[in-house]
Amino acid sequence: MGDVTHQISERIPIHLVVNGVSHTLDLVPWTTLLDALRDHLALSGTKKGCDHGQCGACTVLVDGRRVNSCLTLAVMKDGAEITTIEGLATDGALHPLQQAFIDHDAFQCGYCTPGQICSAAGLLVEGRARDADEIRELMSGNLCRCGAYPNIVAAIQQAMGQP
Amino acid sequence: MNNFQYARATDVADAIRLLADPGAKLIAGGTNLIDLMKENVERPTRLIDISRLPLRKVEETADGSLRIGALVPNSDLAYHPLIEQRYPLLASAILAGASAQLRNMASVGGNLMQRTRCAYFYDTATPCNKRHPGSGCSAMDGLNRNHAILGTSASCIATNPSDMSVALAALGALVHIAGPSGERAVAVTDFHRLPGDKPHVDTSLGTGEIITAIELPPRGFAQNYSYLKIRDRMSYAFALVSVAAALELEGNAISGARLALGGVAHKPWRSLEAEAALRGQAATPDHFSHAADLLLQGATTRSHNGFKVELARRAIVRTLTQATNATPQSQAHKKIA
Q1: Interface residue A123 vs chain B (CB under 8 A)
Q2: What sign has the CA pseudo-torsion A78, A84, A89, A91?
Q3: What is the mean pLDDT, run by run of 10 residues, along chain A of 163 residues?
Q4: A18 to A15, A25, A84, B213: CA distances (angstroms)
Q5: Which one of A134, A156, B203, B333 has the lowest number of neighbouring Cβ atoms within 10 Å?
Q6: Are B51 and B9 in contact (CB under 8 A)?
Q7: Which of A6, A71, A122 has the CB atom closest to B30's CB atom?
């Protein structure tokens, strides 16, 4: 929308850079970022859990910050850079968090895992968690109904370079 | 979620002008509004996106106050060096609320505007005076374990869910507002209102008005403070009772005291009488207990929330003790000292 004063229309053209790839989408304004990723860009790695910001399964990075994509309107992120679970690996090499989740068997059913890993990626960038308690607190927005929490914390500690 | 039109405000004046549309609502972080729209509790016909307005500064003013732009994200505020150093009570309260993701999204102004999490307010199949004025209150004789014990009315026993606002009330913050008839400022304790017979009105914000900033007065109580939040699980849950306590001590004598409660009323609950009773006294559990009694004066309970009175009384004593000892409650390490 650039410097358009304010635009009111049914479908709105939106530009997003998702995992380094530029996309232009025509979306109705009530499309969440989660639905835009899954239904319009076929990036189904980001999961819809509660769809109310309570479970964290939909966590992605917007301009490097972790957010709940289910409570984000895509139109409000026009111009943003989005990173999803599909964008974390580089040149076929797993992100250290992806490898750590495998090493520690940090999942059971795996449904929460993309959100857990994207959230943990945000946590590492924030640099506020220094020990297991702080990891637990700052990952509390990501629920795991299988209860893989001890292994998730261990995986994040490995990615942080902690024993 | 209902269909709506989308408009992006170019500046504050544009946002105020767009708010002349009675079906319009402002959106910034959207963490509460989008959720309420998904539940059909809120059904705006137009959203006015204010997220790109230049209200993201944290600035020191000439008189030593701190002015915080309404669009500063909750996480940025909690981790801002000036907040960590001068107003750690506020940093702690913000970090006690929501999750890291939601704090990254939610704005300071939006935090002030968030609505109650009363389950009946969310459930459109049940009567609720806040959602549908005059329809009745389902919580009154329903599941009211989480509900208010202070400042309630016959119409509503909902609580304000914010942690940030409790610290702001204790710190004596001001809310700066712009609207069709100019700018004004109101104490945060007068910004949220009691339900009375108009529980659908949460705040004193007038038609067409927008929050532009929050102002913290110079006294930050950075030495002796604590924010203690009691809830059903240890993180990512709303308060049953929370306490913001801040003290100024001369030796063991209290020269200044601030005390506010969350989770117990339609607004952050602060009592100048309770604070006055602490001034000049020794910082001892007996005096804390007396202040708690004054703060909880007039508490009324329903069938499931009677426990909150004693819980609040004990939490107040505990939090004031933590503040006295300069051992504020950690929001990550959960043991309560």
Answers
A1: yes
A2: negative
A3: 48 97 97 98 98 98 98 98 97 96 98 98 97 98 98 98 80
A4: 10, 12, 8, 33
A5: B333
A6: no
A7: A71
Q: Chain B contact for A68, CB < 8 A?
A: yes
Contact status, residue B143 vs residue B119, Cβ threshold 8 Å = yes
Residues of chain B with pLDDT under 70: none
Minimum distance, in Å, between the CA of residue B9 and any CA atom of chain A = 6
Contact call for residues B118 and B128 (beta carbons, < 8 A) = yes
**pTM of the complete model:** 0.97
Cα–Cα distance between B165 and B46 in angstroms, integer?
27
Each as own residue / partner, the long-range contacts of residues B2-5 (CB below 8 Å, 24 or more positions apart, any chain) are: B2/A30, B2/B37, B2/B40, B2/B43, B2/B44, B2/B45, B3/A28, B3/A30, B4/A29, B4/A30, B4/B44, B4/B45, B4/B46, B4/B47, B5/A8, B5/A9, B5/A29, B5/B45, B5/B46, B5/B47
Q: At CB < 8 A and 24+ separation, what contacts does B79-83 make?
A: B79/A128, B82/B58, B83/B58
Side chain identity at residue B23, one-letter code? G
Nearest to A59 among B4, B34, B101 (CB): B101
Task: Return the DSSP state at B216.
Answer: E
Distances (CA, A) of B7 to A76, B45, B51, B78, B179: 10, 11, 11, 30, 18
Which tokens hold the place of A141? 């927005």
Q: Please say whether the beta carbons of A44 and A8 come within 8 A.
A: no
Q: What is the mean pLDDT of chain B?
A: 98
Our CA-based measurement puts residue B62 at a distance from the nearest CA of chain A, in whole angstroms, of 31
pLDDT tens-digit series, residues B95-128: 999 999 999 999 999 999 999 999 999 999 999 9
